[in-house]
Task: structure prediction
Amino acid sequence: MESGIPSLPEVSHRLFRGSVTGPEYHSDALSDNGLFHSRLPRFVPRRAQQEMALEVGRVLAEGGTLVAESGTGTGKTYAYLVPVIEQGVRAVISTGTRHLQDQIFHRDISEVGRVLGRSVNAVMLKGRSNYLCRYRLRQAMSQTSLTGDDDPALAEIARWAASTREGDIAEMQGVGEQAPVWRLVTSTSDNCLGGKCPEHAGCHVMKARQKALQGDIVVVNHHLFLSDRTLKDDGFGELLPHCDAVIFDEAHSLPSVASDFFGFSLSSFQLEELCRDVVVAEREEGSAVDFADALPAMTRAVVQVNTALHGSQEQILDHGVLDEIPFRQSLDQLNRSLESLRASLELAAPAGEALDKCHQRAVHLQGLLDEWAHGRDRNLVRWLSRSRQWFRLRATPLRIDARFREMMQHARSWIFTSATLAVGNDFSAYTTQLGIDGSQRCWGSPYDFRSRSLLYLPASMPDPRDKEYPDRMTAVIQDVLEASRGRAFCLFTSYGMMNRIHTKLRDRLPWPMLLQGEAPRSELMDRFRQSGDAVLFGTASFWEGVDVPGEALSCVIIDRLPFAAPSDPVLKSRLRACEEEGGNPFMDIQVPAAVQALKQGAGRLIRSEQDRGVLVICDPRIRTSRYGALFLQSLPPMPTCERIEDVTRFFQ
Ligand code: SF4
Result:
């Protein structure tokens, strides 16, 4: 990609610590007269960015922890990349989204390295499902030749497999990343044979990991980082012991990702996949053990659990459900079937590596089932999610602080940054969850919100629980869209409200009215950007990670303060635990989470210096409740109005 940077002589030396004098770190690279200003024509020096770079540099040089909120447009990626590259520390950078991971690796690191005149050995590491598994491809091909099923996608992958060096499935243009065939030819930590695999020498997953160990900067995402640390992925190279610093960008999503990784889950998919792999392994390695009873019994037991859950909610806490006799009986039956399969596999295991691995998986899954059924760990909330065809037994920790702190012993410097970490200027809700302390800094967005934005809080809105609320909100949204001439995101906290208002408005207004669910998210976003005056109706997944600079998005309308559903099983248990410990669950947990979500939603509006737009919050509690001030204090400094005429004037 053309970066616009005047070409610099290639510097081939390794990174060095030339900019650290004693414990102090100084850099003027990002200053008004610095290298970036002189070498990058579009670079705008920002005081917040310079301050953040110095603060990050200090923590990298001295060790410690920095929690930094940095508003949209601060340029926080450069603010940490400059000191990392200048000081030559070995760093792992972990992002919340794949989009940011790509941007940092493909664009930002090379740009910063070139401006600073440093060669940077950066590596991007993805999760194992992004790499071709040569062993499973071989198995899938032999299965196809046996059954005579001709799968053109599989044949195409086999042709590509013969020539690819990296084995990254993103290279394959002809087969989409979501295609079901990839499940057959990529590995999971469950089914990977590791060092015993006949394809180990040429394994793409292993090669990618070895390469990552050589990198000065390794770019990963939070899922991969935590799977390394929680050793949920055997054979991973353990990046942390090899790095000086860890930087979490989009750090606001870290607590929820960590909650998943510090717990465990057992799904019907894992059990069904084990059965399939046993069939293939037995055919290849031929132990002569008879699986004719054990495999169908497992399949029946999985169906029986699904049947016992029929008619239940999609997410269920263990309380109550576990006591229901049909469900308990179905779990007992599942346990017996798993034990019978495990016993058969124990006999078969000596016949080959694949059968041996299946045996280990059966032992592991049995352990998880036992742990879930008995719930011995009081820090784990046991719950389950389900649909008609599948179920997942899940255990999520009530608290993750101790585990997270323990993990932090492995590197000396830790940076947590995002545009949304604080409530007002208070980071305590975030830092308490992760059990971290250290310096905390908050830098607001450099964009001119006072003159380029407006916060519209419509007057005399009823309480969201009032039956009048949907009609009043529909009228408000219609008025606002007429003033903004479309060009808006309408963000809802529930599907019901989203669908209801979309149905009412779609034929009344002349602009394309896009609805979440009617097409994949990326396609909806493309249509939104291309249209220029579309309106998009969406729920949670559009509240963050969506970037539409320019006039196509001039208005963000939020239906109500985004409190998480109190029916969420883990939240419910955490609220109860907080109360039992004498805390105030609403103010300590629910309000901070909702403030963070609102900041994310509002953050979609102003994405560049030239943007201008209106944020509409229909929920009157932001003004009338005692906690409303916390929401208002956490938003950028926007002028506020209560009348639609002011909105109309803003857009004229
Ligand atoms: S080592 Fe694991 S990922 Fe690599 S080829 Fe073998 S099974 Fe696949």
